[in-house]
Amino acid sequence: MNSTHYPQDCEHGCIGVGLRHEHYTQALAQKTCSIDFVELHAENFFAQGGPSRHLLEEIRSLYPVSIHGTSMGLGSLAGVNERYLNRFTQLDNDVNPIYISDHACFTWGDDSGKPLHAGDLLPLKFDTQTLNATVSNIDRVQQAIGRQLLVENVVTYFSFSNNIFAEAEFLAEVAHRTQCGLLVDLNNILVNMHNQKVQDITVNALKWLSYLPQGHINELHLAGSSLPQMGDIIIDDHSQPVSEQCWQLYTLAIQHFPKAATLIEWDNDLPTWDVLLKEAGKARDIRKAAGVSLRKAIP
Amino acid sequence: MRGIQVKKRTIQNTSSDTNYQQFLLNEIFSFSQSTALQKNALSIYQNNLLMTALRSLSISYPVIESMVGEHALYVLTRRLLDMDKPASGDWAEWGDKLATCLFNSELYESYPYLPDIANLEWAFHIASRSEVLSFDGDSLQRLSKSDLEDIYCILSSSVSLLPSAYPQHQIWQAHRVVDSGQLPDKSVLKAIMSNIDKAEHCIAYQHNGVAKVEVLTEEKLNWMLGMQEGISVASLLDLYPTFNFASWLSEAISKSWLTRLD
C-alpha cells in the first residue's frame, strides 16, 4: 500500500464512491470533497492512450483511487487470461491504487480454441475443483501485481446442486489459502437471500458474515437494486439508492469489521453527484454513530 | 450455509459436470432454453449479455445507433454475438465486425453506405484508445543518407485509412453533431442524399490525445495505402510521380500520422 495515496484516517473505515463516466466532470470540478476515495472500473482505463489516460491522471491528482476489475473471473477453470492479466497489472503499476479487487465468479471459457469471455459475473460451483482453481488464479494474480487482491462475492441467479461448501465458507477458505482480502458486497448477500427465499434475511446475512475471517475484510460495498422482476427475482443492477435493509445490515456489519472501507456503488440510472455524495455521507454518519455506541459499550 | 434455510434454484448434475463452466457459457451464448438449467436463471444471464453488448455497441457506434435506431441495433447485437463472441474481457474491444454484420443485413440494400460509416466509427473509436508514439525526428536523417528505395514510412498505430464510394464524412458529421436521440436536420440530410454517389475517403487518427477524422484526397489515400502495404518511398514516387512528398511529409509529421522513417 502506498502511504502517499492513503487517505488520512482511512485505516479506520474510509468512505468512497464508485466514480462513473457521467460524474467525471463534477468530480473533477470539486474543490473539496467529503469522500476519502473513488473506485474506478479497471477495464474503463485499459486503453493505452487517448483521453482516458489523461482523465486517469486528473482523477489520481484529486482522489485516492481504488481499482475494481469486473472481468477477471477469479474462479475460472480455464484460468485467467494472460493478456487481460497483463493489462490489469499494468494499470495497477500505473495507478498504485489504495485497493485493487475483482470477483469470485467465472468469466473465461473456450470458443473453438479461442478465448471466450462471458461479459458477466457467472456463478461458481462451490466444490474442491473450483476452490483449487480459484486459489491458483488468485495466487497468480497476486504474484503478478505484487500485492494483496480483494475478492468480492457476487449475485447469482441459481446455485449448483452439488456444492460442497457454502459461499461464505468457500470465500473464507480462499482467503485463508491465498491471504487475499475480501470485499463484501452487502447488497449482493441480501439479493441472493431474497432470490433464494431465505427467511429472516438480516439475521441470516449476519450469520453469513460470521463465517468470514475478520482480519481479511478490507472493504464493504453498499448498493441498491431495482424492484423484483421476472416473478420475484431481483436483478442486481446497482441502479437505486442503498436500500434500508442494506443500511441496516451495514450498521451491524461495521461492528464486525470496523476497519473495512465502505464504498457506495451505483452503476446504472445514476443520480446526481450530490446525491451520490449524500449516500456516502450517510455511511459516514452511521459509522460515527456506531463508533460512539461501541465506545459506550466499553467500560 | 449451515443454519440458513434456502430454496435454491439449482442446476442438477449433468454429464457436463467436468466443466460446468464451459457448459453454462455454451448455454448462455446459444440463446436457447436449456432443459438442464432453470429457464428464468438462464434468461437473466442471456438478457444481461445482450444488454451489456448492446450498451457497448451504442458507446462505440453512436452514429450507427442514431441512424438505425435502438431496435435495429438490438437485432444487430444479437447477430454480432453469434458471429464474433467477446474474447478480451474489455467490451471496448468488441464490435469491430459490425460493418460486416451490416453488409450482410437486410439494411444494406436500402442503405449501402452503413458499413462504411461503421468502419469509420470503429476507426475513430480505435484512434481514441491508441498509444501514439512521438515522431522519431532522427529518422529524417535517412532521407539524406539513404537511397529512397530503402526508405519506408511507418504510420502511427492510431491511423486508419477509410476508402468509400459514399460521402461518409458528411453523413457521420451530420449525425454526430446532434444530441443523442435526435435526428439531423432534414435539409442537411437531403443535401447529402442528393449527392450520395460522391466518394469521400477519410483518415482517422489521434493527435494531441484527441481522435480526429478528416477527408483525404484520392491521391493521398493511395499514397498512404501504398505505405501500409510496405512500398518504399522511391517505388511510391514511381507510382505517383506528381505526388508532393515533401508537403505530405510535413503534414504527416505535424498531424502525428507518422511514427518514423525506416
From TrEMBL, chain A:
<dbReference type="InterPro" id="IPR007801">
    <property type="entry name" value="MbnB/TglH/ChrH"/>
</dbReference>
<dbReference type="InterPro" id="IPR036237">
    <property type="entry name" value="Xyl_isomerase-like_sf"/>
</dbReference>
<protein>
    <submittedName>
        <fullName>DUF692 domain-containing protein</fullName>
    </submittedName>
</protein>
<dbReference type="Pfam" id="PF05114">
    <property type="entry name" value="MbnB_TglH_ChrH"/>
</dbReference>
From TrEMBL, chain B:
<dbReference type="InterPro" id="IPR018640">
    <property type="entry name" value="DUF2063"/>
</dbReference>
<feature type="domain" description="Putative DNA-binding">
    <location>
        <begin position="20"/>
        <end position="100"/>
    </location>
</feature>
<dbReference type="Pfam" id="PF09836">
    <property type="entry name" value="DUF2063"/>
</dbReference>
<protein>
    <submittedName>
        <fullName>DUF2063 domain-containing protein</fullName>
    </submittedName>
</protein>
